[in-house]
Amino acid sequence: MAPNTTSDLAATGVLYEDDQLEDSPAVARKADKVEAKEPFKAEWIWLHVIFIAALHVGSLYGLYLIFSSAKIQTTLLAFILYPVCILGITAGVHRLWSHRAYKAKWQLRVILTFFNTIAFQRSVLTWSKVHRLHHKYSDTDGDPHNSRRGLFFSHMGWVMMTKHPDIIEKGKGIDMSDLEADPILRFQDKYYWYLMPLCCFILPTVVPVYFWNESWVNGFFIPGVLRYLFTIHITALVNSFGHFYGNKPYDRNLQPTQNKSVSLVTLGEGWHNYHHTFPWDYKTSELGDYGVNFTNAFIDFFAWVGWAYDLKSVSMDMIKKRVQRTGDGSHELWGWGDKDITKEDKEVTIITRKSE
Question: Residue 96: CB partners within 8 Å, gap ≥ 6?
């Protein structure tokens, strides 16, 4: 006897999710799935928006003060604090703590933690968790600054909007036990909101006033606000421009690119295609050229002193094989960019590959 009810059809396996029976369990399940997959719509966090807007207004005022009333020492202090903050991110929270690309004795860890606190980009524990999440789920909804959501979002928009649910869910699986075991990092994280204002804004303001009789206004807005926002924009270039503009000699399937300009201003973080291909390399680049990778020189110096050790790197053979297997052909030595390879040689190679 042929089944003539919804339950009978389901029992025989004849009923599928495509069946358009309004009272069927399958249709109900399908409706639930559709409802569960409603697109995420980010909302503005207006407190963050107002804070960042105020920083930009204050920075413009600080720029005006440089040319109108500030002493040269005050401007020089802002320039000195810039690489200090950058190194707190690049050599510290990025290469040392997020990727464990090298190890450091307590003296260097204290210095880098101090530098990181001046930079004001959240504590080492928080920053490292966000960055490990970024690498594990790069350019997906689980990436806090997913570049596929646009240049503005990946640059600064992500700190002004609510998080995608995937970020919250996948973030629960990020292991931070290695960093949580460090008492220096635990101390910084526990007292961060006391230490950060002191290091990032109060000290840069007080030093000019005390040592060369600068005004409080100039001290606050130039080495304080202007320097802070400038370093924020510079480090954010890695997340934005470093994922949009440049070539991909190491892995053409990755979104991050090689960008020399970004590397220059970030003291070595612009070789982003290499870094996402080999994230454990302490140089974050193939060669570690000091001219465009000052962070590498910084780490090498402290390795010479003895405060940095167990520096991880990648063999040239491994790099070569990866370039030949997944690169976009732009590598200057093993790709189409080699000046010693003639146009005829390249054409022959292309013809050979097409015939295979």
Answer: 102, 103, 104, 109, 112
